[in-house]
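Entry 12.
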Amino acid sequence: MNSYINVIAIVEGKTEQVFVEQILAPWLAERMIFMTATQVSKPGQKGGDVRFSRVSRDIGLHLKQRTDTYVTTLVDYYGVTEWPGMDSLPAQRAPAQIAEHLNTAVMNEVNNLFAEQQSARRFIPFIALHEFEALLFSDSSILAEELGIPVANVEAVVAECGEPEAINNGRETAPSKRLNRWTQEGKFGKTTQGIAIAKRIGITRMREQCPLFNAWIARFEALMVESA
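Predicted 3D structure (tokens):
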């Protein structure tokens, strides 16, 4: 019986690492869930070019190093090409269907590779739809205020797509592309402005507006109940 759990999050890049370290991990720690973030490794390079062959190697390393930890992922769906389940995605699909399809495919692949490390119990896949930046659309007022744009602009995007996690995968309409257009410089600062906005919005609001993100966090909360 444990009164806490440890989670290692393998994240796509610097922004996701800062988000976990500065915003998500402190929130989880108050609930006795201790998460640490590590970027996908590659000799001489960090972040970018996220391929499952790289991620799976890191998943295996962390599953083998400590048997008392859980391992999860935080990788953007946008731009991913080499990933389990990508070739078999149905043509018409909702965000929840995409996430379920890809996360199930990753789970199956990881279990094929690391069953001896109890991956079925210890690995929790998560792919962010469609980008980390989608979470910033969880509060239209805060996002608009921080960008200095009319709140109606943000509300129109959320209304058009239905919810933040449904803001799509288009080259010009992905969350990051929309944010770029709303900045005077034409380039939104993910690790600076993005993290500042995420801090103002907070995890609770993101969970209310983003069902897939909420379900990911709920998995850790359920593990706490199971371990008690």
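Annotation: The chain has a mean pLDDT of 93. The CA atoms of residues 124 and 192 lie 28 Å apart.
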